[in-house]
Amino acid sequence: MFKSLNASRPSNAASERPVAQVAFCIDVRSEIIRRVLETVAPGIQTLGFAGFFGVLMEYVPFGANTPKGHLPVIFNPPYRVCEDLSHASEDETQRQAAKRQLRLRVATTWKSFKTSAVSTFTFVEATGLIYAPKLFGDSMGWTRTIP
């Protein structure tokens, strides 16, 4: 009535090693890529992995004030994982936490500036001059361009 997992594999599968093994999330978005990869490269073995639903938790990075949920919205996290410094004094922990909070605030501010609809043209105008040396070097053939 029940089949063994080994019985479902072809007999020659144990002797042939795949060229590569690629794990995908079992999601409709990545399933398309997985099927195309299996079609164009039959030597590659693909696997489905349900990693998103592995552990229902929220994660608090070091220096952050709010946790980040790593679970579907409909669930409440039963676990909270907090990042912390090990073998550090209280004073050192406070200093490093203040540095990390500053970096997190700057990163959040920069990301909201880059992705906001209002700053689309402002971002390009403000940062466009930074790319002038690269554009000049690419046009002169001094730097490697990306095809």
Q: What features would you highlight for this structure?
A:
147 residues; alpha/beta; 3-stranded mixed sheet; extended
Order of helices and strands: EHEEEEHHH
Secondary structure class reads alpha/beta
* Cα end-to-end separation: 56 Å
Note the beta-strand portion. Answer: 15-25%
Mean pLDDT: 81
How many β-strands, per DSSP?
5
Number of helices: 4
Shape assignment? extended
Q: Measured on Cα atoms, how large is the radius of gyration? A: 24 Å
Largest sheet: 3 strands, mixed
Placed side by side, the strands forming the largest sheet appear as 4-3-5
Helix content: 25-40%
Unreliable stretches covering 5 or more consecutive residues: none
In summary, what is this structure?
Helix content is 38%, strand content 16%. By secondary structure, the chain is of the alpha/beta class. The strands form two sheets. The protein has a three-stranded mixed beta sheet, with no helix packed on it.
Describe the 3D structure.
The protein is α/β, with parallel strands linked by helices. The chain has a domain at 16-49. Helix content is 38%, strand content 16%. The protein is built from 4 helices and 5 strands, in the order E-H-E-E-E-E-H-H-H. The strands form 2 sheets. The chain has a 3-stranded mixed beta sheet with strand order 4-3-5, with no helix packed on it. Strands 1-2 form a two-stranded parallel sheet. Strand 1 (20-25), helix 1 (28-40) and strand 2 form a beta-alpha-beta unit. It is extended, with a radius of gyration of 24 Å. The termini are far apart. The model has no long low-confidence stretch (mean pLDDT 81).
